Amino acid sequence: MTTEPTAPGPRAATDDPPQVPLGVAWVLGQVLAGVAVVVVGAWAPRPRRARGLRRAAGLLVGVFGIVAIMTARRSLGSAFSVFPRPVPGAPVADDGVYRVVRHPMYTGVLAQATAVSIAGSPWALVPTAALAVILDRKAADEERRLTLAHPAFAGYADRTRWRFLPGVR
């Protein structure tokens, strides 16, 4: 006798609602905060004083951010992912810019947001601060996952003390 598979029944009222995976939530928060930085930086009130100096400083910080992102991306190679989970089989990046800080790509993203705040509206510092908190928590989650996947990561984290900027834990 053959039985047909049955479709799952309706969910019980006590079932927990489906949850968004934490890694997806970090990336979504990061994107939303980044969009908020751009929107606020472009349309919020801007000071008129020292406009040229602010734009030049913003450009300098922005170029630093681009260089940091590109250098980190090149160092990561096949280990690159926007999600905080390690790519299976990929080694821990511990050379190049990763000898100085553990998350140089996040440093570059924060530099870009700061550049918008400097060159555009200082009100963009509010979503930039939110982005910094999101990236800090995402980095902590990523480091926890890396420690589980790569036992040698703990030694790397001890050698490379700074998460985003030298001198700032």
Provide structural commentary.
The protein contains five helices and no strands. It has 169 residues and is mainly α. It has a domain at 51-159. Helix 2 (51-76) runs antiparallel to helix 3. It is globular.
Keywords:
single chain
Give the arrangement of secondary structure elements.
Elements: H1 22-43, H2 51-76, H3 104-119, H4 125-149, H5 153-159
Helix pairs in contact: 1-3, 1-4, 2-3, 3-4
Give a short account of the largest sheet.
none
The tally of beta strands, per DSSP, is 0
Radius of gyration in whole Å, from Cα?
A: 21 Å
Strand percent estimate: under 5%
Low-confidence stretches: none
What is the structural class? mainly alpha
| H/E series | HHHHH
- Spatial shape: globular
Total count of helical runs of at least 4 residues: 5
- Provide mean pLDDT, rounded: 90
Distance between the termini: 66 Å
Oligomeric state:
single chain
Helical proportion? Answer: 55-70%
